[in-house]
Amino acid sequence: MPRHLTTVPAPADPLALLPQLRAALDGTAPLAVLPAGPPPAVEAAWAVLRPEVPLEDDADLVVVTSGSTGGGRGVLLSAAAVRASGEATLRWLGGPGAWLLALPVSAIAGLQVLCRSVLGGTDPTVLASGEPLAAAVARMPAGRRYTALVPTQLRRYLDAEPAALRAFDGVLVGGAATDPALLAGARDAGVSVVTTYGMTETAGGCVYDGEPLDGVRVRVADAGDAAGPGGVGIELAGPVLATGYRLDPEGTGAAFAGGWFRTRDAGALDDAGRLVVHGRLDDVVVTGGVNVAPQAVEAVLRRHPDVVDAVVFGRPDDKWGQRVVAAVVPAPGAEPDLAALRPWVTARLGGAAAPRELHRISTVPTLHTGKPDRRGVAAAVPDERS
């Protein structure tokens, strides 16, 4: 008998989702949570989900991706994959505990906070909009405490409420590249921070501090191999993998092959076998024949005293093929310019990585997953050479 997807809007109280989520994890009622946001975002999610069309086999949760490198997709996750991810996370952290939800439940990172709570038999606490972190921590039960954040949240709370961060036995950080200096600062402050790597297609983070969770396998394909040209591509396998994309057999075939998922992320395994992620192959800026990872440039720019945050991308250039473009959020009272920032980047990453075009913005917009909206910024700031 055909099964159909139940779609629900992200509720004001995320805990209202728990009964439906339990049913999805039992494999009895397939579920998708629509993102909260402007009507175009909701309409785009509806177009991907198409709940009127019978659901594919072995799908119990469908999560719409953020579309950070293109149009969003509906990722088909089985209850077994979500459970495998949640249970492996709890084992890695040292056992069940109380979770603080600080991320949208329409994205896999937020949804997994609820799933881990269900699997661990605990009640999650929701961080209300604008609520101090310390106030939310005070509402959590005693015992082991965990949360999941994106890097911008970690930076904000480390600056404003480091003591509240220290109250957690584990702070998972993912969804975007995390500046090594930010991680070092958090650890120096006594925060039990854990870097996570994964995506919706792996039911969330599946590599913690460079090491795969139980059952997860990691390999890196050289340029010209299955990962495709232009870099070295990370591929993942294991019980956490999605079964494919909603109503997209061609996309499923291209991304999932032989039990492996091609992430389209560049990376390498270090001498100890730990995974080092370099960034999206799609985001690499090729300027003067040199491959530049935007995430590396962003991390260096954030360390400049005149810069609070940054987004880096490429634009076509007659001379260089592409040029590096930076949009920065200035520090209070500062007016960063190319004369100051180009030497700063050159000294740390080389001249090819130094921005040739600069824009000042008030804030870095994010997608519903918490990732920086790189494409949105690129479309919003004018092309100085057009």
Written account of the structure:
- It comes from Geodermatophilus obscurus (strain ATCC 25078 / DSM 43160 / JCM 3152 / CCUG 61914 / KCC A-0152 / KCTC 9177 / NBRC 13315 / NRRL B-3577 / G-20).
- Helix 3 crosses helix 4.
- The protein has two domains: 193 residues, ANL, N-terminal domain (Rossmann fold, 3-Layer(aba) Sandwich), CATH 3.40.50.12780; 97 residues, ANL, C-terminal domain (GMP Synthetase, Chain A, domain 3, 2-Layer Sandwich).
- With 386 residues, it is α/β, with parallel strands linked by helices.
- It is globular, with a radius of gyration of 21 Å.
Q: End-to-end span in angstroms?
A: 57 Å
Number of helices: 12
Question: Which radius of gyration do the C-alpha atoms yield?
Answer: 21 Å
The proportion of strand residues reads: 25-35%
Name the CATH class of the largest domain: Alpha Beta
CATH topology tier name of the largest domain: Rossmann fold
How many separate structural domains?
2
Keywords:
386 residues; alpha/beta; Rossmann fold; GMP Synthetase, Chain A, domain 3; 7-stranded mixed sheet; 12 helices
Provide the fold topology.
Blueprint: E1 6-9, H1 18-25, E2 31-34, H2 39-49, E3 61-64, E4 74-77, H3 79-93, E5 98-101, H4 108-120, E6 125-126, H5 133-138, E7 145-149, H6 151-160, H7 162-166, E8 170-173, H8 180-188, E9 193-199, E10 204-208, E11 211-212, E12 217-221, E13 233-237, E14 244-245, H9 249-255, E15 256-257, E16 260-269, E17 275-280, E18 285-287, E19 290-292, H10 294-302, E20 307-317, E21 321-330, H11 338-349, E22 357-360, H12 374-380
Parallel strand pairs: 1-2, 5-6, 5-7, 7-8, 8-9, 21-22
Antiparallel strand pairs: 3-4, 4-14, 9-10, 10-11, 12-13, 13-16, 15-16, 16-17, 18-19, 20-21
Helix pairs in contact: 3-4, 10-11
Protein name: AMP-dependent synthetase and ligase
Domain AMP-dependent synthetase/ligase: 50-245
GO molecular function: acid-thiol ligase activity
